[in-house]
Amino acid sequence: MRLRLLCSNFLLVVLLVYFMLESRLRLKRLILLNRSNLGTTLKAARTGRSITEDLSHYIGAVTIINIAVGMLVAFGAWLLDIESPLMWGGIAAILNFIPYLGPMLMAVLLFGFGAASSGDLGGGIVPMAAYIGLQAIEANLVTPSILGRRFSMNPVIILLAISYFTWIWGLAGALIAVPLLITGKALVEQLGSPNIVGFMLGEPLFDSPPERQDLD
Asked: What average pLDDT does range 19-35 have in this prediction?
């Protein structure tokens, strides 16, 4: 049952990423070609560029954080005299891109290898506990603080977004929670606050600029 759920979540993530990448240029072209005036077209272009830049910076920040985690894991493995510390650091950095499941798998691998190489459970508990402590600090303090400072967002909002979308969509929600938050922030900055109540009553979600009138 767990394996089936894991496979379905992984397939959902792959399909989601594929369709997002496949439709990005087509959606951008559709937005730019169907605007009623030049001002709206420029605003749409600026919004798309802002979202792309913010998402690129997010991916870069997460990559740097994961590399730092991998370096700390490699250093800890070297201190604990675990074989191939660089290999363990690389595995930790790669698995850290997968929310929740990646760190869980890494902890299990450290426990299994440590227990097997030392011949007792204590040899597996020490590296696993050290990694769990590192992961708790990184996931709950370091990453939200860095992303919040980089994108001018409250770290608590980032944690709430990750928890909420994980609760709704599982692994796929954990992966897209922060990108969705960044996208929404960019839309609000470029287009203004959405008129949600008016939108439910048939009004535009965002205020549109006035139409340009041609002179006779």
From this structure: 55
Among 16, 45, 43, 12, which residue's Cα sits nearest to residue 28?
45
- Does residue 164 contact residue 177 with C-beta atoms inside 8 Å? yes
Tell me how far apart the alpha carbons of residues 70 and 135 are, in angstroms, rounded to a whole number.
11
Rounded Cα distance between 206 and 113, Å, is: 55
Q: Which two tokens stand for residue 65?
A: 């954080």
pLDDT in tens, 42-81: 666 677 777 778 888 888 888 999 999 999 999 999 998 8
Does the pTM surpass 0.85? The reply is no
Tokens of 31: 């937005």
Residue with tokens 């938050």: 181
Going by the DSSP 8-state scheme, the letter that residue 121 receives in this structure is T
Where are the strands (E) in 29-172, listed by range? none
- Give the Cβ contact number of residue 5 at 10 Å: 11
